[in-house]
C-alpha cells in the first residue's frame, strides 16, 4: 500500500488521516502497527514518455522540467486502461533511461480503482501509484509512465545501494520527510513504476481476472520501455510494509521469474 506513501483507499481514510499527522508517528509505529507508510506531498508538471533511448549513452542526463515529452505509446486495446491522469500526482520527469523497477502494492481496501484515485486526490498527500488494478481486472492509470509518482517513499537505510539507485534530485521530495534512521533512503520513486492491486492482506486470494490484468500490464510496461524491469513488492523496498500480502508470494516469484502469475 502506498499509505501515506500511496497505497490507500477511501475506507482507510480515518486511519490514514491519523497516520498522516506526523511522520514521527509512523516511525514510532514501525514495524508492527499501521500498514500505512508515511510520506509525501507535492505536485508538479505533466509531461510524458519518450521511447527514444538512442541517446542513452550511459551518462544520465537530468531532464529539465521545461522539456515536455509527448505521451506517444498507447496501451494495447485489449488492456483497456482507463486514463484518469491527475497532474498533481506527478513529481517531475522520469524518462526511460531512469526506469529500473516495477513496484507492486496492495491497497488494503476494497474500493475500485476510480475511487482509490479519487481518494488519493482528495486526501492532500499527492501520493499515488501509476496504475491501480481492480479485482475485476479493470485498470486505471493516474500518472504517465515517464513521470515520477510518489508510491514507494522512504526505504530501509542502505536500500539505495542494494537496489542500485541514486538520489539525483529528479524527485522533488516535496512534502516528504525522513521517517526514521532505519528508513532514510529515497531513491525508488524516481526509478520505478508503481502498481496498486485492490486487495486486503489476509482476506483471500487474488482473483484470476486481476492477475491476468497484471500479466497484461507488465507486458505493456516491458514493451513500452523495450526491456524488462525488475519486479519487486513494496515491502522489499521498505521492510515492515504489509504489501504485497502473503497470498501474493507465489505470484511474485512467478513474476520475477517469467513475468506472469502462473
Ligand atoms: Zn505500498
From TrEMBL:
Residues 91-245 form the N-acetylmuramoyl-L-alanine amidase domain. It is an enzyme of class 3 (hydrolase). Its EC number is 3.5.1.28. GO terms for molecular function: N-acetylmuramoyl-L-alanine amidase activity. Residues 1-75 are annotated as: Disordered. It catalyses: Hydrolyzes the link between N-acetylmuramoyl residues and L-amino acid residues in certain cell-wall glycopeptides. The keyword Hydrolase applies. Residues 9-20 have a biased composition (Polar residues). One of its GO terms (biological process) is peptidoglycan catabolic process. Keywords: Cell wall biogenesis/degradation, Hydrolase. This is N-acetylmuramoyl-L-alanine amidase. The lineage of its organism: Bacteria, Bacillati, Actinomycetota, Coriobacteriia, Eggerthellales.
Amino acid at each position: 500500500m502506498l499509505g501515506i506513501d500511496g497505497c490507500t483507499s477511501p475506507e482507510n481514510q480515518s486511519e490514514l488521516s491519523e497516520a498522516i499527522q506526523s511522520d514521527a508517528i509512523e516511525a514510532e509505529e514501525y514495524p508492527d502497527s499501521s500498514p500505512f507508510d508515511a510520506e509525501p506531498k507535492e505536485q508538479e508538471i505533466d509531461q510524458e514518455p519518450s521511447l527514444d533511448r538512442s541517446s542513452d549513452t550511459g551518462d544520465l542526463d537530468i531532464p529539465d522540467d521545461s522539456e515536455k515529452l509527448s505521451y506517444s505509446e498507447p496501451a494495447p486495446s485489449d488492456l483497456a486502461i482507463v486514463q484518469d491522469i491527475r497532474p498533481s500526482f506527478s513529481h517531475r520527469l522520469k524518462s526511460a533511461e531512469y526506469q529500473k523497477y516495477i513496484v507492486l502494492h496492495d491497497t488494503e481496501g476494497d474500493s475500485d480503482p476510480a475511487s482509490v484515485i479519487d481518494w488519493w486526490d482528495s486526501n492532500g498527500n499527492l501520493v499515488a501509484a501509476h496504475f491501480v488494478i481492480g479485482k475485476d481486472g479493470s485498470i486505471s492509470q493516474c500518472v504517465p509512465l515517464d513521470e515520477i509518482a510518489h508510491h514507494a517513499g522512504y526505504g530501509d537505510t542502505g536500500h539505495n545501494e542494494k537496489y542500485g539507485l541514486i538520489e539525483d534530485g529528479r524527485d522533488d521530495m516535496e512534502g516528504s520527510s525522513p521517517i526514521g534512521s532505519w528508513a532514510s533512503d529515497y531513491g525508488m520513486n524516481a526509478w520505478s513504476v508503481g502498481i496498486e492491486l485492490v486487495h486486503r492482506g489476509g482476506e483471500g486470494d487474488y482473483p484470476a481476472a486481476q492477475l491476468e490484468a497484471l500479466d497484461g500490464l507488465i507486458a505493456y510496461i516491458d514493451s513500452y520501455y523495450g526491456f524488462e524491469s525488475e519486479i519487486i513488492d513494496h515491502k522489499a523496498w521498505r521492510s515492515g510494509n504489509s504489501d504485497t500480502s502473503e497470498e501474493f508470494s507465489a505470484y511474485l516469484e512467478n513474476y520475477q521469474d517469467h513475468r506472469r502469475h502462473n
